[in-house]
Write a structure and sequence with these properties.
Helices cover 0% and strands 52% of the residues. It is mainly β. Strands 2, 4, 5, 6, 9, 10 and 11 form a seven-stranded mixed β-sheet that branches. A four-stranded antiparallel β-sheet has the order 1-3-8-7, with no helix packed on it.
Length: 128
Amino acid sequence: QVQLVESGGGSVQAGGSLRLSCAVSVVTRGQYAMAWFRQAPGKEREGVATIAGDGYTNYADSVKGRFTISKDNAENTLYLQMNSLKPEDTGMYYCAARVVTAFSLTASSLSAIWYNNWGQGTQVTVSS
C-alpha cells in the first residue's frame, strides 16, 4: 500500500535534538494513519507518536512535551522532531502506516499490531 523510508538518525549527546524523516511512496491511494515506533535491543517495539488521517496527534507519556510528529502532505513526508533527548530514547526508530477510510479518519494506535506498512528503520543513539 505504501513504501516507507526513514532517515535522519544518528548519535547525539543527552539534551540534544534530532529530526527523523520518513519518505512515503503511495502505492494505494487513500488516507493513512501514521506513526513512529522505536525498539531498543532486547525490548519490544513501542509506539512513540501517532498522527491520524485527520491530523490528530497522540504521544507516549515518555515523550510528551519533547517529541513532535508532523507530516507534509505536499512532500509526502512524515517527521519526528525529537528534543531534550535522553539515553533511554536510544533505539531503532521505525515509521508505520495503515490505510483508513473516510469514516475512520480519527483512528490511530500506539500498538504495532495495528499497522501493516513498515519502513526499515533508522538508528538513534543518545549518550549521557
